[in-house]
Every structure is written in C-alpha cells, then in structure tokens.
Amino acid sequence: MIAFVRGQVAAVTLSSAVLEVGGVGLELMCTPGTLATLRPGHTATLPTSMVVREDSLTLFGFLDDDEKTIFELVQTASGVGPKVAQAITAVLAPDDLRTAIASDDVKTLTRVPGIGQKGAQRIILELKDRIGAPVGARGHAGVVGSAPWRDQVHQGLVGLGWGVRDAEQAVEAVAPQAGDSPDVGLLLRAALQTLSKA
C-alpha cells in the first residue's frame, strides 16, 4: 500500500490534486479543505489511502494521519464506502466525528451528504467502542460557525487560485442555493461558474 505521497503539485481540480512523483503524475482524490492547502508548483506531502476495486485503483489524499485514520475506520461500518467516508472527512473534523459518535449525535452525522438517520445510527452503533475519545487535534476549516459549507467553498476557491474577495463574492452568490443540507461539491462548482461568467 502507498502510505503517503510527496511531490510537486502539478494540478488542482475541484475534487483531486495531481502530484508529480519521480516523473509520474499521481491523482489523489481530496476534500475541499485539503485542496485549499495545495498550491501548484509547490511541494506537498499527503498521507494516502488506496482503495482497490475490480475495475479501479483510487488514491485518496489527506491533510494529516488522523484524517486518514478516520477515513479508513468509518469504512468498516456497514454501508459506508470510500465516497461517503470522504464526505465525512470533508464535513467533520476527526474530533467532531468522535464527539458526535460518543454523544449519539445523529443530527451532526446527517449533515454529511449520503448519510441519513438510519445510516447515522448504524455508524454510531458500530464505531462507538472503536473510534476513541477526541484527541484535541487541529480544528477543521469550516466547522466553526453556522454555515460550515461557506468556509469550505471559500477555501476551495482560494486553493484553486481565486482571490479572497472574489471567493467571498462567489460564496455570497451561491448562498441561496445552499438549503438545509448543502452539498459542498455542487456549491463549489456553482461558485466557479459564477466566477467564470464575471
């Protein structure tokens, strides 16, 4: 397995980054929060997790080892695949997830796209004894405040090279589309469309 990737950032897209390692471009699927920390031309080191399927090999990249651990652990719960696991790490910091599971907080888990009431209850039941207590690690971009998606979309835009002011205006422009359970990926795409028209 590939434990981590270190190389020059060759490209950053809406959902992935390409790191050049020894003349080979490796595509890593990443959350908006991780992508926001990457700059093309700069060197980056990302912990990784490889998901092997019959028809594909997918490499996921993370901000740190704690996020990687959570990504791999939540997939041991019934019905949680890599896409939902990545959505969990995009919406909730590792400690926020530990706190939600420890306190039976179904509402926090259902903020994650793809997790409904029953799915959240199943995750809590299956992981409660294995996920551990909050470790007091870093905060997660966008978790503080009433609308976590705003910071995630803003960071995603800045990470893709847009200016801070432009990113703020684009976030405001797509705010009416957010609704009660915003999809960060869709809002990020909508914000990019807004910026490309401007």
From TrEMBL:
Domain Helix-hairpin-helix DNA-binding motif class positions: 72-91, 107-126
Location(s), subcellular: Cytoplasm
Gene3D superfamilies, per the entry: 5' to 3' exonuclease, C-terminal subdomain, DNA helicase RuvA subunit, C-terminal domain, Nucleic acid-binding proteins
InterPro entries: DNA_helicase_Holl-junc_RuvA_I (IPR013849), Hlx-hairpin-Hlx_DNA-bd_motif (IPR003583), NA-bd_OB-fold (IPR012340), RuvA (IPR000085), RuvA_2-like (IPR010994), RuvA_C (IPR011114), RuvA_C_sf (IPR036267)
Region described as Domain III: spans on this chain: 144-198
One Pfam family here: HHH_5
UniProt GO MF annotations: ATP binding; four-way junction DNA binding; four-way junction helicase activity
GO BP term, example: DNA recombination
Key words of the record: Cytoplasm, DNA damage, DNA recombination, DNA repair, DNA-binding
Family statement drawn from the similarity comment of this UniProt entry: Belongs to the RuvA family.
Subunit organization: Homotetramer. Forms an RuvA(8)-RuvB(12)-Holliday junction (HJ) complex. HJ DNA is sandwiched between 2 RuvA tetramers; dsDNA enters through RuvA and exits via RuvB. An RuvB hexamer assembles on each DNA strand where it exits the tetramer. Each RuvB hexamer is contacted by two RuvA subunits (via domain III) on 2 adjacent RuvB subunits; this complex drives branch migration. In the full resolvosome a probable DNA-RuvA(4)-RuvB(12)-RuvC(2) complex forms which resolves the HJ.
Domain notes: Has three domains with a flexible linker between the domains II and III and assumes an 'L' shape. Domain III is highly mobile and contacts RuvB.
Summary of the function given for this chain in its UniProt record: The RuvA-RuvB-RuvC complex processes Holliday junction (HJ) DNA during genetic recombination and DNA repair, while the RuvA-RuvB complex plays an important role in the rescue of blocked DNA replication forks via replication fork reversal (RFR). RuvA specifically binds to HJ cruciform DNA, conferring on it an open structure. The RuvB hexamer acts as an ATP-dependent pump, pulling dsDNA into and through the RuvAB complex. HJ branch migration allows RuvC to scan DNA until it finds its consensus sequence, where it cleaves and resolves the cruciform DNA.
Protein name per its UniProtKB record: Holliday junction branch migration complex subunit RuvA
Native source organism of the sequence: Nocardioides luti
